[in-house]
C-alpha cells in the first residue's frame, strides 16, 4: 500500500508549491493560537489558493472558539479539519466538514482507548507524541510498538523525520504519516532538502514492505 503523506504547519507559498511537486497528499495549515506556525485567515487563504485539486488542504485548530473555525471554513473551504485539543464530538462535526481528531500518545494509551467511542464521526485519527493538553509540532515521538487499533484510518505523527520515517512506516504501516518540525530548518520554515528526503524515505519503505 502507498503510505499517504501530510506535511503540516506550512507558512510560505513556496513551501506549499514544493510539497505539491513532491506529491504529498495533504497540506496542514495551523490556526492554533501561540503556535510559531499560526496563520491569520488572510495568510491561510493565500496558502490555500496554492493547493490544487486532489491535494487536501487541512485546517488545524486547538481549542479555538467556534467563531474562528467558522471564519476559516468560510474563507478557505478546507477539505478537512483537524482538531488537536479537547474539542467535543459535537463541536468537531458542527462545521459540516470531515474531520481528523488528534490523539495525544505522550501520556500513555488512555486517550486512545476512549477516542474511538468519543469521536464516532471522525474520518481518521492522528496519533501524536505530545502529552494531553500540549501543542504538537515539537518533534515528540512515542513508542511505535504501542499503536492502538481505532477502527479508522490512522495518521502517524510526532517526531518523524527523514532519518526515522522508513522505520516507522515498516513498524506501524499507517494509512498516512504527518510531519512538521522534522522537515523544518527553523519553526514554521520548511527545508526543501528535508521535504524531498522525507518523501523519498516513505517511498523507500513502501517499496520494501510486504503487500
Ligand atoms: O504545529 C504546531 O505548531 C501545532 C500547534 C498546536 C497544535 C498542533 C500543532 N501541530 C500539530 C501537527 O499536526 C504536527 O504535524 C504534529 O504534531 C507532528 O509534529 P512534529 O512532531 O513536529 O512532526
UniProtKB/TrEMBL annotation:
Pathway the protein takes part in: Amino-acid biosynthesis; L-tryptophan biosynthesis; L-tryptophan from chorismate: step 3/5
Record HAMAP family: PRAI (MF_00135)
Full protein name: N-(5'-phosphoribosyl)anthranilate isomerase
One Pfam family in the UniProt entry: PRAI
Domain (N-(5'phosphoribosyl) anthranilate isomerase (PRAI)) ranges: 6-200
Keywords assigned by UniProt, alphabetized: Amino-acid biosynthesis, Aromatic amino acid biosynthesis, Isomerase, Tryptophan biosynthesis
GO MF terms, alphabetically ordered: phosphoribosylanthranilate isomerase activity
Gene Ontology biological-process annotations: L-tryptophan biosynthetic process
Classification lineage: Bacteria, Pseudomonadati, Pseudomonadota, Gammaproteobacteria, Lysobacterales
Entry's transmembrane regions: none
